[in-house]
Amino acid sequence: MTVTIETIRDAARLLEGEVIRTPALPVRRLSRASGADVFLKLENLQVTGSFKVRGAGVKLHSLTEDERARGVVAASAGNHAQGVAYHAGRHNIAATIYMPEGTPFTKVGRTEDLGAKVVLEGVDFNAARDAALAHAEETGKLFIAPFDDPHVIAGQGTVALELLEDVPDLDILIVPIGGGGLMAGCAIAAHAINPGIEMVGAQTALYQSMAQALKGEASTGAGTTIAEGIAVKTPGEITRPIIADHVTDITVLGEDQIEAAVLALAEGQRIVAEGAGAAGVAALLAGDRRYAGKKVGIVISGGNIDSRLLSNVLLRGLVRGGRMVSLRIGMSDRPGMLAEVSGLIGGLGGNILEVYHQRLFTDGPIRDTELDVVIETIDAEHARAIVQALCNAGFQTRVLSNRKD
Description:
Elements lengths: L4 H11 L8 E3 L1 H7 L2 E6 L9 H10 L3 H6 L1 E4 L3 H12 L4 E5 L5 H9 L3 E4 L4 H15 L2 E3 L5 H17 L5 E5 L4 H13 L4 E7 L4 H6 L24 H8 E7 L1 H15 L5 H12 L8 E6 L6 H14 L3 E9 L4 H11 L3 E8 L9 E9 L3 H13 L3 E6 L4
Parallel strand pairs: 2-10, 3-4, 3-6, 4-5, 7-8, 7-10, 8-9
Antiparallel strand pairs: 1-2, 11-13, 11-14, 12-13
Helix pairs in contact: 1-8, 3-5, 3-8, 5-6, 8-9, 9-11, 12-13, 12-14
């Protein structure tokens, strides 16, 4: 099967009523930050929280009765797992999903809730895939590839089909890339509809396998990334030439850039995106003024981020923005000092979150103490004003954490 605009349109008809037609929304803050006219395709609102349900649905539609009876097996960092489990449940097909051992609990739990059997094996996607392939060989179950399959690619291409129906005059489309299934499908659809559109990929620097493959370089993928959904060591054999033909550029992103994009979407747009889902926004913001004056579409590919991880991103954002600051304050260890310090901070509008006396672990005089205080402030300038006021009042004060990006 060769993926064309017609096979993608056929895929869209198969998926009618089975997946959500997600909205494409204009976003003012990102538009102001980049100088572009930005639209987000919100696949984080998809039925399983990710675009992966599209490709999985088209693939399972293609199975014979014998293949359905034998059951299916898949490997996934989480989103493909949920897509396969969702459609397998709808078609009454037994599904076994192999996931890396470090997969976020939210993705494991949701996959099991959809009726699939989950096996955690291997330190990364490649190891989980090898285990899944071995299981398929032993049992006769059909392996459902996460990206390197024409049916899957056609299903993922329906994302761009919908987006360009809603916003037909896009100049640029930015798409996250892991194995390349989403980008391959979107690129075929987009260039069939609008041959002049520029396709830009987004990859994490820790797993830039597609970018390296297109340069003829060996993959160096390794490490723990916030964008586990695109942490793929080896790009697809089918997707690679499609991307080589259609994609202008792949932006390689640091972990801090992707984390900042997750924060920007959560705080600025009230959009919950996982690391991989926010990679396109990270690419936009990393482009400085490259996109200025252009109409840009970005696929927010998924929103299945672990709650604890999202909480840490938000709290780190407060610290980096100077809105949560840890101070160490030197003072005499006598009655009334804590009240005086708290009065100064409160009087200037600071909100004290944590207090800890350092009486033992200090090198100062025995009648002195150090007070560690975590305070919430309006911004970095507000925090500096509080520190200055404490120093002016005779309290030696230094900031323990105020990293700002």
